[in-house]
């Protein structure tokens, strides 16, 4: 297989000019900043039974496209299926009115991941997820050993891993166990986020963190259709809440300087082919020369089935190429943790 190439292009010349729209003109960054943001839907809360099943389907779809980590994607699809099954019979303890009022008063997330006050039900959710993954089919010996090890962890060990994951203390996170622990926590926080009244969600000073739980986004989507058409939304890697952020702005440091977009293209092509591949790419990496980080962005008009969580996980080639260009991920993917602390960015906000 020939090596893939990374094609880069500036934000203003390429990203903003190439997003197709039928009824709405493309806006320059300054124009977007000057819009009446009260007219733009700020929050998209998840539909509790419409997160994990579509994610599982997308993971399988991407695995079938000659993906270099196809086996892992199929395993994670099984895990997402398990999340869907558990979610159907699960209800988390909602935040108290006092907690909501305090969060609003202090401009803090409504159900902060780093509060330490987790619903202990997440540990039972984890056990149910492990049961369903085991029941889904034969396990490889390493996976069987991993599930067995997870079952032996006591309450203190599990809570310690959850703390380390949320705080991004990479040296304390077990990369093999983390996806399963995160999956259980995702069930709890997604259920909570699905029931939140969007009008109660406070504005955070740190725009790049989820206003519902304070976690980092996994990627963003320029959506199509309805009131969200042509707007960019970041998606939380924990609770699946989406929040609006203008394009051509770094979601890690809020800078509008040095923003560029990068797409994986075919090797040894002419300029016309390169331009066409860049223009038609549904998935790009949005880089920032101020903080030297990147996050991925999907253009739903190019691929309607784009799922920020699944597509970010499945585009490891783009991650490798961005690393070769000197950029680092703004935050790790919740289901693909680095082996060493220096393999990812330092935390830039309140949570993971």
Outline the structure in words.
- It is a single chain.
- This protein is an alpha+beta fold and 352 residues long.
- The chain has a single domain (1-352), classed as Alpha-Beta Complex (FdhE-like fold).
- The chain is built from 12 helices and 9 strands.
- Strands 1, 2, 3, 4, 5, 6, 7, 8 and 9 form a 9-stranded mixed β-sheet that branches.
- The longest helix has 18 residues, at 70-87.
- The radius of gyration is 20 Å and the shape is globular.
- The model is unreliable at 9-35 and 341-352 (pLDDT under 50).
Detail the topology: elements first, then pairings.
Blueprint (H helix, E strand, L loop, with lengths): L4 E6 H8 L10 H5 L9 E2 L7 H12 L6 H18 L9 H10 L14 H15 L5 H12 L2 H13 L10 H17 L22 E6 L9 E5 L5 E3 L14 E7 L5 H10 L2 E6 L4 E7 L8 H7 L1 H9 L3 E2 L23
Parallel strand pairs: 3-8, 8-9
Antiparallel strand pairs: 1-6, 2-5, 3-4, 4-5, 6-7, 7-8
User: Biggest β-sheet: count, sense, barrel?
Assistant: 9 strands, mixed
% residues in beta strands: 5-15%
- CATH architecture group name: Alpha-Beta Complex
SS elements, strand count: 9
CATH superfamily: FdhE-like domain
Q: Based on CA inertia axes, which overall geometry fits?
A: globular
């Amino acid at each position: 297989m020939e090596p893939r190439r990374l094609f880069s292009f500036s934000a203003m010349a390429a990203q903003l000019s190439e997003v197709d729209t039928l009824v709405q003109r493309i806006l320059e960054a300054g124009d977007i900043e000057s819009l009446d943001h009260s007219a733009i839907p700020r929050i998209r809360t998840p539909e509790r039974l419409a997160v994990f099943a579509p994610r599982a389907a997308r993971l399988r779809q991407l695995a079938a496209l000659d993906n270099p980590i196809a086996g892992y994607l199929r395993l994670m699809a099984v895990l997402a299926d398990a999340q869907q099954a558990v979610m159907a019979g699960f209800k988390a303890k909602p935040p108290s009115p006092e907690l909501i009022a305090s969060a609003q008063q202090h401009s803090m997330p409504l159900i902060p991941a780093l509060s330490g006050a987790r619903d202990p039900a997440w540990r039972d959710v984890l056990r149910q997820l492990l049961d369903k993954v085991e029941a889904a089919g034969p396990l490889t010996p390493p996976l069987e050993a991993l599930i067995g090890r997870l079952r032996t962890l006591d309450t203190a060990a599990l809570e310690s891993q959850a703390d380390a994951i949320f705080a991004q203390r990479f040296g304390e996170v077990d990369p093999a166990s983390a996806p399963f622990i995160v999956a259980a926590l995702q069930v709890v926080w997604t259920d909570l986020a699905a029931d939140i009244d969007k009008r109660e969600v406070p504005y955070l000073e740190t725009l790049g963190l989820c206003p519902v739980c304070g976690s980092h986004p996994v990627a963003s989507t320029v959506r199509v259709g309805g009131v969200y058409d042509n707007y960019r939304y970041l998606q939380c890697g924990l609770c699946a809440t989406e929040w609006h952020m203008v394009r051509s702005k770094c979601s890690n440091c809020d800078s509008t300087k040095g923003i560029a977009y990068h797409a994986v293209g075919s090797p040894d092509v002419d300029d016309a082919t390169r331009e066409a591949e860049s223009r038609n790419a549904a998935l790009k990496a949005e880089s920032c020369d101020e903080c030297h980080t990147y996050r991925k962005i999907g253009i739903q008009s190019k691929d309607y089935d784009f799922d920020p969580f699944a597509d970010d996980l499945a585009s490891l080639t783009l991650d490798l190429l961005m690393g070769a260009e000197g950029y680092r991920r703004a935050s790790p993917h919740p289901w693909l943790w680095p082996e060493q602390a220096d393999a990812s960015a330092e935390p830039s906000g309140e949570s993971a």
